[in-house]
## 1
Amino acid sequence: MFQSAYLNDLMARVVARNAGEPEFHQAVREVLESLEPVLARHPEYVESGVLERLVEPERIIKFRVPWVNDEGRVVVNRGFRVQFNSAIGPYKGGLRFHPSVYEGIIKFLGFEQVFKNSLTGLPIGGGKGGSDFDPKGKSEGEVMRFCQSFMTELYKYIGKDEDVPAGDIGVGGREIGYLYGQYKRITGLYEGVLTGKGLTYGGSLARKEATGYGLCYFTDAMLRDAGKSFAGARVIISGSGNVAIYACEKATELGAMVVAMSDSNGYIVDEDGIDLAALKEIKEVRRGRIREYLKDHPKATYTEGCRGIFTVPCDIALPSATQNEIDEASAEALVRGGTYAVAEGANMPSTPEAIEVFRRAGVLFAPAKASNAGGVATSALEMTQNSERLSWTFDEVDRKLKGIMENIYHNAAATAKEYGMEGNLVAGANIAGFLKVADAMMAQGVV
Ligand code: NDP
C-alpha cells in the first residue's frame, strides 16, 4: 500500500493491465514506492502523466522463431523485444535466452533498464528482449540456426540509432556473433547494432568483464564509505556465468577471498578460494557443470540445489545468477552467517521480503539497477567506439567504467540523502534514475 491514493490507483491499473506478470508488478511497485516523496515535491510529474507513460512500454514486439533441429524436426520458439522508453536515447538492453522467458520477464527487465541506463549518465533509453529458447545442450549448428531465425525477424525493429541489443542470460559472445552475422547479411550494414561483439568485428575491450568488474567497483565505493573494504573479506557469488566469473576475478584482485559459487544445479565451496582459471575452463570453454570443479579440487565440496549457497557464512554476498534467487529465508541465513554487505550482480535477485530483512539488520545493500550498470555502460562505450570507428585500450575502457560506477554510487547515495533516506541506495537509485528520464519526457511533450 502506498500513502498516496494516486499511486495506489496507478499500481492497481498496472496489475490489472499486465495480469499474470508478477515480476513486472514487483519491479514497478519498488520504483513507485521510492517515488512517493518525489511526487510530493514535484506534482508536475503527476499532472503531465509521466508515470502512466513510464509504466507502459512504447512498443512490444512478439514473434515466432521457427528453426530446424539436428534431427530435422521443426521447433518453434517465441521471440520478444520490449522497447520500453526512448526519452534519453535509443533503446538499449540485453537479449535473454532461457526457457523461463515470457513477456512479463522481459517487461520487468526492460522497465529496470530504463532507470539503470539513466543512472549511467550516458544517452541510452531502455529496452530488453529474448526468447524461451534454451541454448543449454544444443549443438553449435542448432544455436546458429536459432540465432539466424531470431534475427531474421528482429532486424526490422533495430538499428544503431534506434535499438541496440546486447547479451544477458544465455546470450554470450557466441550468440552475439551469429546474430550480428545474420543482421549484416540481411541489411548489408556494418554498424554497431549489437554490443558485446567479438574483438575482431567491432567489440570493445573490457565489455566481457564490465558487469562483474563494475559490480565490484560499485561495492568497493559503498564499502569504503562505511569504513570497510574487500581486503581480507570472505565473499560468496551465486551463478558462474558472465557476471559471476568477472565479479570473482575483480573481488579477488581487490583482496577478497571468494569461497563459493553456483550454477542452476548446485554450489561449490572451496575454502582455499575459488580457482578461477579452472572455473573459466569449465564454464567458458567446456560449457560444463560446476560440479566438475571437484575433479581437480578434491578438498572442495559440491552440494546439489542452488539456493543453499546463501547458507555459506560470508562477509559479502554478490548474487549474480537470476531474479528472486534470495528469498526471505535465504536473506535470514545470510544475516545469521555474518553478512554485512549484499551487492546485486543479477537483475532483481532479492525479493522485497529479503530486502526488508537486510534493511532491518543494517546490511549495506546495493540494488541491481545501480550496481550492475557497468555492463550497459560499457556497451554504450562500445557504441561510441563503433561510431568513431576507433578502438580504445583495455585500460582506457576500464578507467571509464570505474569512474562511471563510482559516480553512480555517489549519485544514488546523495539522492537518498537529499530525500531524507540516507543510506537507502534502493530509493536513491530509483529517484536519481527517474528524474533524468522524467525531465526529458516532460520536455518532449506528450509522446
Ligand atoms: P549467464 O548466462 O552467463 O550466466 C547465468 C548464471 O546464472 C549461470 O551460472 C546459470 O546457471 C545461473 N542461472 C541462470 N538461471 C538460473 C536460475 N533460474 N536458477 C539458478 N541459477 C540460474 O548470464 P549473465 O551472467 O550474463 O547474467 C546473470 C544475471 O546478471 C542476470 O540476472 C542478468 O540479467 C544480469 N545482468 C547481466 C549483464 C551482462 O552484462 N551479462 C548486465 C547486467 C545484468 P546454469 O549455467 O546452470 O544455467
## 2
Amino acid sequence: MTDTRIDAQTAAAPVYTVPQERKIVTAIPGPKSQELQARRSKVVSSGVSSALPVYIERANGAILVDVDGNQFIDFGAGIGVTTIGHTEQRVVAAAADQLQDVIHTLFTITPYEEYVRVAELLAEHTPGNWEKKSVLVNSGAEAVENGVKIARKHTGRRAVAVLDHAYHGRTNLTMAMNYKAMPYATGFGPLAGDVYHAPSSYPYRDGLSGADAAARTIGYLEKVIGASDLACLVVEPIQGEGGFMVPADGFLPTLQTWCTENGVVMIADEIQSGMARTGRYYASEHFGWEPDLVLSAKGIAGGLPLAAVTGRAEIMDASQPGGLGGTFGGNPVACAAAIAVFESIDEHDLLAEGRRIEATFRAGLERLAARYDIIGEIRGKGAMIAIELVQPGTGQSTKAPNAEAVTAIVAFAAQHGVLFLSAGTYGNVLRFLPSLAVSDALIEDGLRVLDDAFASLG
Ligand code: PLZ
C-alpha cells in the first residue's frame, strides 16, 4: 500500500491521515501517558515542564493523537509552529526527499542550494522593498541573539532596548530581554547587561493612543539610555507570551521613524507572529511597519527547527566573515521543509485561511463575551487570537486579572479533548494559535467546549 502521507503531496485539497475530530476514550492523562510520565520524571530534568502531559504518538492537520488513542483539537500548534498543519503533506515529502540526498554538510564548509533558496524567499516575503540578506540559525532565541549581534556591529553601539511584556527566549542574552523574571530568569543570573525595558503599547490596560504610547516609549529611550548608545530596539509586533497585545495604531511606525532618525536598528521579533500566522506573511504589515531586521522561526519550517534573521543588506553585511553561523544553522532538511512551507502558503492561499479563522473565532468569542462578563477583551489577528479574563462582576471596569479562570478553563478543555494555551504577564490570557488547517467545524466544536468551560466556573 502506498503511503498517503507522501503520495498526496500533489493533491489540490489537503488529505488528512487522521480524522479531523476530537475523541476522548480514557481519563486524561490516560494510563499509557501516566506510565510515560513516571519514566520521564526519573530521567528528564524537572526544569522542563509540560502543560498537558499526554504523550503524542501522531499528529495531522489540526489534531493530536495520544498514546492512549485520545484525539485533541490542537489550538496551540506547538506554540505557533505547525502553522500550516501537523505533518503537512508537502513538508513531509520535501523533508523525506532531502533526507535521501543530503542531511548535513555545514553551510560554512560546503554550501547547498536550499539555504540560498530560503534566503531568497525570506527576502521576497518580509516587509520592505529593499535589498535584503539573511542568516539562518536553529531557534528563535538564536535569531534574537544574532539580530542583536548584527545591530551592535553595524552601529558600534552597546545598548539593547525591549518593551514591557516581551518574551524573546531562554538563552543567556534573551532571558535578560524578557519581561517576566519567573520562570525565565529567576536564579539563572547574572543577566546580560545593557538591556533596557521600555514601556509598550497595551491599549486595554494603558488606554493610550499609538502616538501617546510611542511618545512615552521614546521618552524612556532618550532619557534612560540616550539614542547615541542604543544599538537596537527589539519589538514583537503582536506580543506572544505577554498576552497577544495588539499595539495601538501608529505606535510601531512612529518608533521606526524615531529609530531611523537616530541610527537605531529596529528589529521585529516575528518569531510567534510571522509566517502567515496573522493573515499576512508578517504581522508588521498590519501596522504599516517596515522593520530594519525581521526575525522568523517557529512556523517557518512546518515543525522542523529553523530560524532566520533577515533585513537590510547593509546591516546584515556588518559582520566580518565567520562572525555568524553555527553547526546546524540552516540544516538542509529544515531548509527543504521551509521551501515547502512557503510554497504551500502561496499555493493554498493560506493567508486567506488566517482571515477565515479570525472571523469564525471572533464571532464565537463575541457571543461568549455577551454572556460571560469575565471576558474583558478579545484581541489578535488571523490565527493569533486571545481573550483576557478579569474578575467576575467587574466586567470591563476594574480589569483585575483572573488567572484562576484561565487555569480552570484550560484544565476543563483538556479533559474534553481541546488543547488551549494560556499566556499573559498576569497569566489571565487564553490564547488560540490553531494551525491554518483547522476547519470552521473544529473551531465551532472547540468554542462549544469553551462555552461549557465558562459555564462550569459557576
Ligand atoms: N521570541 C516572540 O514567542 C518562543 C516559548 C515557548 P525559541 N515562544 C515560545 C517556551 O515556553 O519555551 C519565542 C517567541 C518570541 C522568541 C522566542 C524564542 O524562540 O525557538 O523558543 O528559542
## 3
Amino acid sequence: MTAPAILRIALDTPLRRLFDYLPPKIATHAAAIGTRVRVPFGRQRLVGVVHSHAERSDLPKEKLKSVIEVLDAEPVFDAQLFALIEFAASYYHQPMGVVLAAALPKLARTGAESRRILTRWFATAAGATVDLKRAPRQHAVFAAIAAAPDGLAADALDALGDWRTPLRALVARGYVSSAESVEEPPAPPADLILKRGPGLSPEQSVAVEAIDAAHERFAPFLLYGITGSGKTEVYLHAVERELRRGRRALVLVPEIGLTPQLVARFRERFTAPLAVLHSGLTDTERLAAWRTCVSGEARIVLGTRSAVFAPVVNLGIIIVDEEHDASFKQHESGFRYSARDLAMLRAQRAGVPIVLGSATPSLETLQNVATGRYTRLSLPRRAGQAVPPRAAVIDLREHAARQGISTPAVEAMQRHLADDGQVLVYINRRGYSPTLACTACGWIAPCRDCDARLTVHLGAQRLRCHHCGADAPLPEHCPQCGYAVRHVGQGTERVEETLAALFPGVSIARLDRDVVRKRGDLEEVVGRIASGAARILVGTQMVTKGHDFPSVTLVVVLNADQGLFSTDFRAPERVAQTIIQVAGRAGRGTKPGEVMIQTEYPDHPLLKSLLAAGYDGFAGTALAERQAANWPPFSYIVALRASAPTLPAAVEFLAHARKLARASRDVKLLGPAPAAMTKRAARYHAQVLLEAAERAPLHRFLAAWLPQIEEIKTSRDLRWSIDVDPIELF
Ligand code: ADP
Ligand code: ZN
Ligand code: ZN
C-alpha cells in the first residue's frame, strides 16, 4: 500500500472542519483510518484521529505540517464505529473532533497506548562478563533476569522486593536491556458461562427466542415488562446466546452508581470478562477498561451513556436497560446526544439485534412500536408468584395530613408494618423543606442567583439551592425584619422526622443524594432495607433505580402533583413513569403489594388514565395529545439556547441569529423566548425552538444556519448551544 499524500485529521477543537497534514516523516505504523495521531497545532501538540486519506489539499503543500507520530498500530475505531461517530457529528451538528473526544477516555485523548504494553528485561552480553558481588541487590536482580532466556516482566520481578532501583542501575551500566511488546489479552476462560439461569417463563422464552432468531441482523425490540417481570433475566439469556457464538454484548444502563445489582447479576452468571465503563471511574481505571474493549478481552461491556462509543470487537447484541431514562441524554453541556438513539444506529450499522427494556417505555419508543418499526415483546406477569400491586388515590382535599402524610396513608402503614411488611414512602424532593419563610413579613429565602427558593437542610443547618449549589448558613430569624422563620413544605429529611414521631421504635432508612455521597453509601442503605433492619424507606427517585426490595408491600407516593402542570410537554410522561416505577417497588416478593397516591387533583386526566388503564392507558392518551399538539414524536425539534449575564443580551443574540435564518416552508421557528427558569446560576437563559415535520429539511436548515451563527460577534460571556431532540425544555 502506498502512503496517502494527505491525512485528514479530526481534532478536538470548536472548528467544524477537518485538518490536513502530511504523513509523518518517519512512520512506525501506517496511518489507517481510525488510528490516533499526534500533530502540531499552533503552538500545541494535539492528539487527533485519522478521518480519511486524500490525494491533495486545498492548502499549498509548503503550508502543511507533518504528523508527529502515529500512535496506534491498529485503528482504535473500526469502520462501523467510526461511521457512527461521523453520523453523530453530523446529526448533532458538532465538530467531529468533539464527538471523538466524547468517545475516547481522557488518557487515550492525550496519547496513552491503546493496548497494554509489556516491558521485558534481558541480560546483555556485557552483563554476563561482570562480577556484581559487591552490589548484592543488583546481583540478585541480574541473576533472576539472566536465568530467563525470554526476559522477565515486572510481575515476575516483584518477587524480589524492591527491584526498580537496582534494575535502573543495571540498565544504566548496560548490563540489562529492555524490549517492549503489546501485551496479548489473557486467553478467554474455557467456558464463558458460569451458571445457567432459572428456567424461563413462557413469555420470557418467547422474548429470548425472538431476539435470538434475529442474530446477525438489525432488529429492534422493545422488551416491555413491569418491574420485576424478569427483563434482566431475558437480557442474560440473550447475551448468553451471543457469547456462545463468540460475539460480544454491549449493555447500556442509565446510572451505574445506582445499578450495582445489574453488574452483580452479570458477574454471577458469566465467567466472560466484563468491562464496566462509567463516570465514577478514575482516568486510569477508565483507560484500563477501554483497553479490554480494544483488545477484545472484554466479552460484555456494561456502561453508562458514553459506553455507546466503546470499541466493542465483534459486537453481537446491544441492550439498553431502562430505555426511557433521561440520563441517556447528555443535555447539560458540550456534545448533547442521546445514547439510546445512537445505540439504535450502532445496532443498525453493525447489523445486530438491539433490545430496549422498560416498564415505562418512552412515548417515542411506543410510537415506533405502533408504526411497526420495533417489535414489542411483553412480559405481562411478575416472575415467580408475585402479583401486581393494587393502586388507590388519596384525595388530599378530603383527608387531613400531618406534615404531608395523610391519615389513610398512616393507617395503611400501620397495617403493613403490623403484617411484617416494609413500607416505601416516595417524595421527589430532598432536604427538610423547600421553603424558608418569615412568620411576620412574608419574606421567603430566595436564591440570589436563580429564579428559585433555597431549600432548608436542617441536619446540616444549611440553606441550599438545588439548581446552582449555593450554600448558606440556616438563619433562625428573618434577615429582613428579625422575626422568627418557619419551614414550609416537606422534603425527605422532614418526612423521615415525621415518620419517626409517628412510628416510634420502627427503624427508618432514607435514600437521596444527601445520604448517598460516596461509594458504598448506596449499598449500605439498600443493605439495611434488604436485610429487614430498616422497616420504612423514605426516598427520592433514587429508590426506583433497579433495586429489588422483596419485602416492600406498601408504597406511598406523597405528592404526585408536581409536574402535572409543567410547561414542558414531556413532564406528564415523566410523572407517569415515576409513579409506575415507584409503585413497582411494592409486592415484588410473594406478598401482594399496595400503592397509595396522594394528590390534590384526583380528577386529573393523566392520573385517571394511569390508574384506570396503567402505563399503556396513559401512553395512549399522551400520544394522542402529542399528536394533536404536533409535538415529538409527531414532529422533530431542535433548541438553540443562549445564556448571558443579562436577559436582553441572551435574547438579542437569539433574535440576531433568527434574522440570519433563511425563511423555510418546512421549518418553523419559535422565539426567542426566556426559558421557564430564566435565571439560573447568575445567568439568564433563553431559547429559539425549531420545529419540522421531517428530519431531513430540519438538518439541512441547521447545516446552513449554524455557520452563520458562528460568525456572529458576541461578547465573551455569551454562551450558546444547539440541542437536537431536546428532552427538557427549560
Ligand atoms: P426486571 O428486570 O424486569 O425487574 P428481573 O429479571 O430482575 O426483572 O426479575 C425479578 C426477579 O425475579 C429476580 O429476582 C429474578 O431473579 C427473578 N426471576 C426472573 N425470571 C425468573 C424465572 N424465569 N424464574 C425464576 N425467577 C425469575
Ligand atoms: Zn420578616
Ligand atoms: Zn441557585
## 4
Amino acid sequence: MDNVREQIEFDVLFVGGGPASLAGAIHLMKLAKHRGLDLEVALIEKGANIGSHALSGAVLNPIALKELIPDYREAGCPIEKDVRGDEFHFLTGTRHYKVPFVPKYMHNKGFHIISLSKFVSWLGKAAEDLGVNVFPGFAGKEVLYGQDETTVIGVRTGDKGVGKDNAPKANFEAGIDILAKVTVFGEGPRGSLLQAISKKLRIFEGKMPQVFETGIKEVIQLPQTNYFSNSQGNDIHTLGYPLGLNTHGGGFLYEMKDNRVGVGLIVGLSYQDPMLDLYEEFIRFKRHPFISKVITGGQVIEQGARTIVTGGYYSIPKLVVDGGLFVGGSASMLNAPALKGIHTSMKSGMLAAEAIVEAFSKEGFAQEALSCYEQLIEDSWVKKELYGGRNFTQAVSKKGLVKFLHLGAQYLTGGRGISDRLPIEEDYKTLRRLKDVRTDPASVYEKQAYDGTLFVDKLTGVYLSKTQHREDQPCHLIVHDPGLCVNECFETYQCPCTRFCPGNVYELEIDDKTGEKRLKLNPSNCLHCKTCDIKDPYGNITWSCPEAGDGPRYAVV
Ligand code: SF4
C-alpha cells in the first residue's frame, strides 16, 4: 500500500483540532503576516468536524482569547452565559451545605460559560479565514521521522476503508503522509502519537507521572422557569457525595443559554475500589436532592465523556524535539485547582506559534531552534498558574483526611506544601484487590431506575453523544491478552473495564452451562474518552484511533 501513498508538504502542521492547536494556528498566521512570512499551515482533526470531539466543563477564562482575538465578542464568539456568581457546595448523602467562601482558584465571576464544541468550531472558522488548511476527518496515525530516526518530519494519516480482517475494501483510501518542517502535537489527553513519541524520544523521562480524571457531562434542557431564574450563582461546584474521602473529584452545574444547564461529575482515576462504576456515580450525583432541584423537569439532550490531564507542572514533558512541539492537554497544560485548561492550552499553542515564527526567521527547525518555546512558557502566566497548583492533584489524591493537611499547607505556601514534588502513583497502579476492599461486590449499587428523559442509561447516553463508527473496520481497542481479562483480572478485580468505561464498550459474558467467561467488546460505542487505556490495572488495553471521522459528534457539550 505504501507505493500509492500520497505526500503533501506544509511548513507547519498542527495535529488535533482543540483549543491549543487552533489558537496556535491563528496566532501563527497573524504573526507570520506581520513578519512578512508566507507560511503554508495545515491542521488535521480526527473528528468528523472541528468540535465533534470537543467536550469540557466549560468555564473559559478569556485571558488568552483576549490576546488572540481582542474583539472576540463582536467577532461572534459563541458564549453561553457570563458567570455572574460562583457557588461552592459540600454534599452529604441527603443534604448540601453552601460553603461561605469559594476557593481563590475558582473565582470565575466575569468569565464565560461556553460549549467547547461550539467554541472550537468557531475558532476553526477563524483559522480557515486566516488561510489555515483545516482538514477534519483526518487522524494522525503514525509519526514520521527523518533519516536520523529522531527528527519529526510529519505524520501519516490513517487508512480508510479497511475491513475487519485488515484487508482493503473496494472503497479503500490510503492514508496520506503530511510532511512539515514543524509539527505541533495538540491531540488532547493521552494522545496516541504523543505516547509513541514518548516511547521513542523519552520526553517524559524524569517527570512526575501524568495523572488523569474522567468527566461525564450532560447538557440538560430545563423548563423556562428553572433554578437559575432566581439564582445569582450560575457557576456551581460541588464536593463530597457521591465520592468518598478516598476518591477525589467533584461535580459542576453551569448555566447555559436557552434554559440549558451543563451538568458533570469528574472522578480522579487514582481511585482504589475496583467496583466503582463511573456512570453509576454520575447518576447518583444527579439524584442528590440539591442537584435534582436544579435539573428538575429537564431532559438530557447531549451526553459525553472525556479524560483530563491533571498531573500539572511537574508532569509537563519535554516540550520540544527536533521538528516537533507539544501543546495543550497532552502536554499537561491544565490548571488543576482551578479546574480549567482551555485558556492555558490556548496560550501554550500561541507561545508555540511564537517559537515557530522565530525558527522560520532563522530557517532552523531542530530542537535548539524551537526550544525558546520552553522558555516562553516559563516566562508566561501559564507557568505562574501551573506552578501555583503544582502539587494539588497529588494532594487531593491522598486517601482520607490527610489530603486536607496537604491542601492547607499548599494554600499557605504558594503551592509548595509539606513536600514539593509530592509523590503520586500512576492511575493504573492504584486499584486494590477486590477481596481487600469489600466482601460482597453485588451490593455496590442499588438498581437505578431510568426514566429515559432526565435519567438515561449508558446506551441512551451513547446515543445522545451521536457516536458512530463504521462497523466493518479493525477493532480500535486492542486487548493484548484476553485470557488475562477473564482469568486473573476477573479473579482479582472483577473486570473493572466493565465499570470504568462510560460507553458500555466492555461486557463480561459468562456461559450459563460451562461457566466459560468471555470479554465482549462493543467498539462502536466508544466515546474516545481513553479511560480504559489509562486505568486498566494490567495495561492490557490500548486505545488506538479508529477510522477518522468516527466517534462522537458533539454539538453543544
Ligand atoms: Fe472510553 Fe475506552 Fe470506553 Fe472508549 S472504550 S468509551 S475510550 S473507556
